[in-house]
Amino acid sequence: MMISEKMYELGSKRSAIRELFEFGKKRAAEIGAENVYDFSLGNPTVPAPAIVNETLKEIMDTHDSISVHGYTSAQGDFETRDAIAVYLNKTYATTFTADNFYMTMGAAASLSLCFRALTTSEEDEFITIAPFFPEYKVFVEGAGAKLVIVPAETTSFQIDFAALEERITAHTKGIIINSPNNPSGAVYSAQTIEKLAALLEKKQQEYGTQIFLITDEPYREIAYDGIEVPYVTKYYANTLVCYSYSKSLSLPGERIGFVIVPDEAYESKRLYAAICGAGRALGYVCAPSIFQKMLVKCVGQTGDIDAYKKNRDLLYNGLTELGYTCFKPQGAFYMFVKALEDDADAFCEKAKEEDILIVSATGFGCPGYARVSYCVDYDMIERSFAAFKRLKEKYDDMQ
Ligand code: PLP
Fold first, then answer.
1. Per-residue confidence (pLDDT) for residue 68, from 0 to 100
2. Residue 164, burial from CB neighbour count under 10 angstroms (0-12, 13-18, 19+)
3. Mutation to probe ligand 1, out of 135, 221, 242, 250 (largest number of atoms < 8 A from CB)
4. Residue 66 has what pLDDT?
5. How far are the Cα atoms of 154, 188, 190 from residue 157, in angstroms, in the given order?
6. How do 239-244 and 359-360 pair as beta strands?
7. What is the predicted pLDDT for the residue at 17?
8. What predicted TM-score, i.e. pTM, was given to this entire model?
9. Which helix or strand (DSSP H or E) is residue 120 part of?
10. Whose CA is nearest to atom 8 of ligand 1?
11. Phi, psi (5° rounding) for residue 368?
């Protein structure tokens, strides 16, 4: 066999979301872009804040080309890591230093590094809570471990603790959480994080193991109505933070983020070195230099979160009025809508017949729901209601 079948499969099978996106482009060419309601992707539509582009220009004007485009140290420029530590300490009353940070090419890289740094045997398991970002499976399996899924708690989209506890074993290396959540839009409360921390402490004792809480938080700042997004390292020592600027600064194509290994984590210096080692083994070398330099000035800035909130309100109110059952998003830019039949895949196919492109949550481990991504133009949401009404009527007529 010349090539890896595993890699071939990953590379040749397009994700369902990508398929939908491609279909949308084709339909737009046929019937006009204004008649296609594409809610499929999670690509920010709010532009990066002006200060990002101004800072990038300033960097180009004031630095020599060698220092802008050269390699940085593997863990990232000290000034960048220091600026982020200062900002987080000020905002969340944490006590990080530059040495706790490893700069990465976004959350996807951050997660992969954590799984690889922690995996020691093919029996190792990482547990995640449905609904979950499907790439977790790819990253965990890529590290040589197994992904275990806790079914969704569909009332508040917090955590079904009994189901989680049942799944924690001596092989559990970590729990992956994502709040604000893609795809449910839920934000885990302080109470949820406290309960989770207490459960993991108990299980660590029971098994004499270390269980890491891997918190995937690219949507941390995208939260509405003043809801608190608890800073997880303050609740549990063995926490690894995977952060990204893809969503907060609307820079998904630029690939910049970080991992935090707090001092309180078990053997934190060795763990940090293992994260560096995983970066080396993957050939990551260093995170993009110019975007690291940009962060020294732009850390703490965000795109216009209010634009997403306006979209959320319009979509939630509009679909609820039409008779859909929706979970009101507390953060991120996705809304979970209950499918109008048991089979969410079939429901999304029927939506597609009305040129509404929404993603079945079966792939997110949560059957019976669809994800409507509202990082889209406000006008498109308004225009889509007629189509959503037709879709609802189709089901009403079948009753
Ligand atoms: N985790 C979640 C929950 C996401 O939704 C995404 C991107 O959509 C990622 C991770 C990957 O983000 P990044 O672009 O920073 O790699």
1. 94
2. buried
3. 135
4. 87
5. 5, 8, 14
6. unpaired
7. 84
8. 0.97
9. none
10. 42
11. 95, 0
364 close to ligand 1 (CB < 6 Angstrom) = no
Q: What are the DSSP E strand ranges found in 87-154?
A: 101-104, 125-129, 146-150
Which pair of structure tokens corresponds to residue 364?
A: 């997110």
Domain 71-298 belongs to what topology?
Aspartate Aminotransferase; domain 2 (3.40.640)
pLDDT of residue 99: 98
Pocket test for ligand 1, best of 43, 221, 241, 246 (most atoms within 8 A of CB): 246
What is the model's pLDDT at position 15?
79
The low-confidence residues of the chain, meaning pLDDT below 70, are none
What residues does each domain of the chain span?
5-49+303-398, 71-298
- On the question of a common fold for 5-49+303-398 and 71-298, the answer reads no
With 0-12 / 13-18 / 19 or more C-beta atoms within 10 angstroms meaning exposed / middle / buried, residue 162 is: exposed
pLDDT at residue 372, rounded to an integer: 98
d(CA 114, CA 126): 11
| 30 Cα–ligand 1 center, Å | 31
Check residue 39 and give its pLDDT.
95
- List the CATH code of the domain at 5-49+303-398: 3.90.1150.10
38 phi and psi, to 5 degrees? -90, 105
Ligand 1 and 133: CB distance under 6 A: yes
Residue 65, pLDDT score: 85
Helices then strands, each counted (H, E), the chain: 14, 13
Structure tokens at 376: 């889209």
Dihedral pair phi/psi, residue 385, rounded to 5°: -60, -35
